[in-house]
Amino acid sequence: MLSPSGRDHSMRNLLRNAALTAMAIGLATVGACSSHSSAKPTTTSTPPAVSAPSAPVPDQAPDTSEDLTAPLTAKIGETFNVTGTDENDVLYRADVTVNSMKDLGSSLPANEFADAQKAEHGRLVVFTITYAQTLGAFPYNSSDWEVRMPDGQEYTGDAVIATSELHLGQDLTSGTLHKGDRAKGIITFDIPKTHGKLVYNLGLDQTAEVTF
To answer: If you compute the radius of gyration of the chain from its CA atoms, what whole number of angstroms results?
Structure first.
């Protein structure tokens, strides 16, 4: 049986051991928590930047320029549009048609109005031409026309025959067409017996080539 002093000493040993055990358990718990939290660090993601929409590109303006020197091409009976400018750069325009071509052959017999006529270059040909104004004051003249052959040779419409007696129509003269005006006439050429082009020249502006 222990004396009172011995019992006190044993009690102090028990209390000290219990305190040390509790301290050890606490340190182990703190270490475990620290190890667990460092295994998966918290991260924060940054959303990708959103670029502002670009401003719409405006449509390009249509090209309204006109090439007034480019030759047009057509055939007998086809209508083409001719555009020119006057001295003030004001546009004028007309629909032009070479309605028909008539080959009169290499000679014409004499009649009461004219002597017999023989073609110097091969044959006499008559073209019927119509103008219909569509814009501005459109000038026309028979001298605007010539025939160009494949070899480059050019012929003007200066063949003179009694066209009224042959019922071919009136000769094309000259003038200016205004709103709604039309003009029609014939031009006669003395040209070789081959195919070529009837060429329309409106000064330094637009031209046209009608094949025949």
So the answer is: 53
Contact of 133 with 180, CB cutoff 8 Å:
yes
Q: Which of 99, 97, 153 is nearest to 126 (CA)?
A: 99
112: amino acid identity, one letter = E
Half-sphere exposure of 51 (CA within 13 A, CB side): 3
- How far apart are alpha carbons 145 and 131 in whole angstroms? 13
Calpha distance 7→169 (Å, rounded): 156
Q: Can you give the pTM of this predicted structure?
A: 0.65
Map residue 144 onto helix, strand or coil.
helix
| Measured distance CA(116)–CA(119) in Å, rounded | 10
Place of tokens 């070529």: 196
Contacts of 78 (CB under 8 A, 6+ apart): 97, 98, 210
Residue 30 has pLDDT above 90, yes or no: no
Give pLDDT tens digits for 72-126: 899 999 999 988 888 999 999 999 999 999 999 999 888 777 788 899 999 999 9
